[in-house]
Structure formats: structure tokens, C-alpha cells
């Protein structure tokens, strides 16, 4: 871990990504509290704001990866931050004058611009560290995710309470400025910034974008191991969608109807702390047992934990199991997150990375749609847990049947190319 932070480029890039995410969390949560507080009789407005964060994924996913692979990744990441900072000034103006339609439009545009940041940042990260450091870098990202799980809602609430929605949005905008400056300060090799050679905006025509997007899909289809892993993102999006409402529903309709707000927050905190603990031990476990074993074992244990959660009727049993499940989920996420840059060539990293989010978002939306349709008329909270556990077990079984064979084939290919290579963590 220390070796990562001895790399000044990685350190600046990590701080830039953290700063950008921190500002987004504070601004988005504070805006949600603002809508609920000011328009308490119109709860649909908060849901609309959430849609403004998610819908742009489907609008721009086909272009963001192509742009990240053709143009300067450093400039894309920096200008993504700075354009969002400029839009934040407009958001402040529209919030001040209470023009909700314009606020939602700005939220949509900011979210759309943010989609360009991820593929570019992933490509820069891939070229800034060694292959043996991918697992540690993924572990750090998972730790940050755990911290935001624990403190994200609280940071938004504290910001809204002490500095108001205007102050929180201002913090949001300043974080983008700092993040963009840090990225511009980084020094990346030319082949990392421009993996496919120097291109200009004039080279980016619609036929070229469509052609390159199709090449990205073909690249995934031709790499069977990569295809299997990415297909799993649909499931993980489904799980995230269910867990977006499951804590509140479980407490409200089963375990603690009178104190559901407090205990649903405690569930998120327990899961977040578990993820942080798991993120610390995950790199060691993956190095010891390989990604394949950690992924399959982690999914199997998750299916068991979810079914146990559905069976319990005590909130003080539910919380510690959630904590243990968070520890278990972190190695699964880190195994997947660190595997991608190892399997994908730098020339295709943007396109492949850009395809994972819409797949997860589709699973997320599918899950929310199914829950809203089936609960509580068709299935109970208990069976919602059981079905999620069975789905997790099904994915575990699929990976158990497919992954070891594909990994062995890839290892044999690498052995033929490099007979004196180091042991693989696959």
C-alpha cells in the first residue's frame, strides 16, 4: 500500500477522485434534504432528482468510452470536473430563484458530464501503476466506497444543516475545481494519455463513434473471461437495486416499524464498516487464494448470509450479520475491480469500462421495478431476501462452472508466452 502512495501520480489521481466523489456526495445528499424539507408534500421531487443522476447513463454510455480511448484522457478527466463546476454555478442560481425544472436539467447535464470522468480516470490509473498493484488500488477504492456508505448521508445532512443547500452546492463545485487541478498537475506518459495516437475533435464523427463502440463490444465478446465477468455486473446491479430499498423496507415492515429510520441508517453503517474491514484484508486473501476462489466463495457466503437475514426476526441479529456480509462482499468487489485492468488492453479500457455502468444500471432499474411491482402484494420481506439469496447462489454456481476453466485457459496462454512469469493471482 505504501508503494502506491510513493507514486506521486497515483497519489494526486487518488486524491482528485476522492475529492470529486466527496463533493458529489455532499451536494447530492444536501439537495435531496432540501427537496424533502422545502417540498415535504411532494416526495416525488426527490425521486425525480435521483432519476436525474441515473438516466444520463443510458444517454451517453455509447460515446464516453470511445471518447476516452480516442482523445486525451487527462484533458477529458480535468475538463469533466471543470464543466461540472461551471454547471454548479448555474445550479446555485436556479436554486436561489427556485426554478425546479432548470435545477433538474442542470442535475441531468452534470451527471451526463460525470460519465466521461470514470473511463478516462480508469485508463489513466491503469497506466500509472504496475499490474501487481491493481488489487491494492481496487482495495483503496472499495475503502472509500465504504466510507461514503457510512458518512455520505450524514455529510449531506450536516452540510445542509450548517451551511444550507447553497453552501453544500458551493462545496460541491469547489471540489470539482480542486479535482480538475490535481489531475492537470499529474504527469502521465503520452501512451497513457493517448493510447490510440493523437486525435482531434474533427476526427470524432458519428460513424467513427458507432464503429469504435461496436469494436468495444466485439472485443468483449471475443474475450470469454471478460464477457463472463461483465455479465456478472448485471447481477450486481440487481443486488444494488434491491439493497437500495431493502434496509428501509425490512425495518419498516418487519423488524422495527417504530424506529425504522434509525435502524435502517444503522444497517448502512454496519455494512459500510464491514466493507472497510473487508477492503483491508481482501488484497492479502486474493494474493493467497486467487481471485477465482475469492469470487466464488464470497458469492456463496453472501447467498447464505442473505437467506439468514431473511429468516431472522431480531434487529440485533440482523445488524451484526450485515456487518459480516460487508466484510465478505469487499473481496468480491475488489476481485472484480482489479481483474478488469489486467484483462483489458489500454487501447480498449475506456470502451470496456463505459459498458459496465449501463449494465449495472439496467440491473439496478430492473430490481427496483420488480420490487415496486411485487412488494408487498406478491412477496413478503422474508421472501424478498430468499429470492435475492437464491439469485446470488445461481450466479455463484454459474461462476463455479465457467470461471475456473476460462482462467486455466488464460493461464496456459500466458505460460506459453512467458514461461518464466510470476505466479498468477487469477
Describe the structure.
The protein is mostly helical and 426 residues long. 85% of the residues lie in helices and 0% in strands. The protein has helices at residues 2-5, 8-38, 44-54, 56-70, 73-96, 100-114, 117-128, 134-185, 190-193, 206-222, 224-255, 260-289, 291-311, 315-343, 349-374, 381-417. The longest helix has 52 residues, at 134-185.
Concise synopsis of the structure shown:
The protein is built from 16 helices and no strands.
List the main descriptive attributes of the protein structure presented here.
single chain; 426 residues; globular; mainly alpha; 85% helix
| Derived structural class | mainly alpha
In whole angstroms, the N-to-C terminal distance is 20 Å
Average predicted confidence as pLDDT: 84
What share of the residues lie within helices?
A: over 70%
Estimate what percentage of residues fall within beta strands: under 5%
Name the overall outline. globular
Quantity of strands, as a count? 0
Q: Spell out the helices and strands N to C.
A: HHHHHHHHHHHHHHHH
User: Uncertain runs with pLDDT below 50, 5 residues or more?
Assistant: none
Biggest pleated-sheet summary = none
Amino acid at each position: 500500500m505504501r508503494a502506491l502512495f510513493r507514486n506521486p501520480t497515483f497519489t494526486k489521481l487518488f486524491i482528485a477522485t476522492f475529492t470529486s466523489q466527496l463533493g458529489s456526495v455532499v451536494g447530492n445528499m444536501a439537495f435531496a434534504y432540501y427537496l424533502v424539507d422545502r417540498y415535504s408534500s411532494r416526495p416525488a421531487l426527490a425521486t425525480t432528482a435521483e432519476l436525474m443522476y441515473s438516466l444520463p447513463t443510458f444517454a451517453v454510455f455509447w460515446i464516453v468510452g470511445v471518447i476516452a480511448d480516442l482523445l486525451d484522457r487527462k484533458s477529458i478527466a480535468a475538463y469533466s470536473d471543470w464543466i461540472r463546476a461551471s454547471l454548479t454555478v448555474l445550479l446555485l442560481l436556479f436554486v436561489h430563484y427556485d426554478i425546479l425544472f432548470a435545477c433538474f436539467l442542470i442535475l441531468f447535464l452534470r451527471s451526463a458530464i460525470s460519465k466521461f470522468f470514470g473511463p478516462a480516470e480508469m485508463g489513466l490509473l491503469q497506466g500509472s501503476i504496475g499490474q501487481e498493484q491493481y488489487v491494492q488500488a481496487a482495495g483503496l477504492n472499495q475503502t472509500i466506497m465504504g466510507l461514503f456508505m457510512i458518512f455520505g448521508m450524514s455529510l449531506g445532512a450536516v452540510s445542509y444543516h450548517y451551511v444550507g443547500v447553497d453552501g453544500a452546492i458551493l462545496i460541491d463545485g469547489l471540489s470539482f475545481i480542486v479535482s480538475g487541478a490535481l489531475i492537470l498537475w499529474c504527469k502521465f506518459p503520452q501512451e497513457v494519455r493517448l493510447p490510440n495516437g493523437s486525435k482531434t475533435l474533427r476526427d470524432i464523427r458519428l460513424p467513427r463513434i458507432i464503429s469504435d463502440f461496436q469494436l468495444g463490444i466485439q472485443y468483449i465478446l471475443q474475450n470469454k473471461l471478460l464477457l463472463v465477468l461483465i455479465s456478472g455486473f448485471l447481477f450486481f446491479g440487481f443486488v444494488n437495486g434491491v439493497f437500495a430499498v431493502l434496509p428501509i423496507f425490512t425495518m419498516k415492515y418487519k423488524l422495527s416499524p417504530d424506529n425504522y429510520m434509525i435502524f435502517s441508517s444503522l444497517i448502512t453503517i454496519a455494512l459500510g464498516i464491514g466493507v472497510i474491514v473487508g477492503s483491508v484484508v481482501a488484497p492479502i486473501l486474493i494474493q493467497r487464494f486467487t481471485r477465482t476462489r475469492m469470487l466464488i466463495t464470497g458469492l456463496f457466503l453472501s447467498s447464505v448470509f442473505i437467506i439468514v437475514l431473511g429468516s431472522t426476526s431480531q434487529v440485533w441479529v440482523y445488524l451484526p450479520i450485515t456487518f459480516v456480509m460487508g466484510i465478505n462482499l469487499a473481496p468480491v468487489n475488489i476481485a472484480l475491480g482489479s481483474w478488469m485492468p489486467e484483462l483489458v488492453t489500454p487501447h480498449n479500457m475506456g470502451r470496456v469500462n463505459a459498458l459496465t455502468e449501463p449494465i449495472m444500471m439496467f440491473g439496478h432499474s430492473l430490481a427496483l421495478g420488480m420490487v415496486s411491482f411485487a412488494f408487498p402484494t406478491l412477496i413478503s420481506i422474508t421472501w424478498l431476501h430468499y429470492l435475492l439469496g437464491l439469485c446470488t447462489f445461481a450466479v455463484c454456481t454459474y461462476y463455479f462452472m465457467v470461471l475456473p476453466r476460462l482462467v486455466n485457459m488464460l493461464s496456459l496462454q500466458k505460460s506459453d508466452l512467458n514461461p518464466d512469469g510470476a505466479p498468477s493471482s487469477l
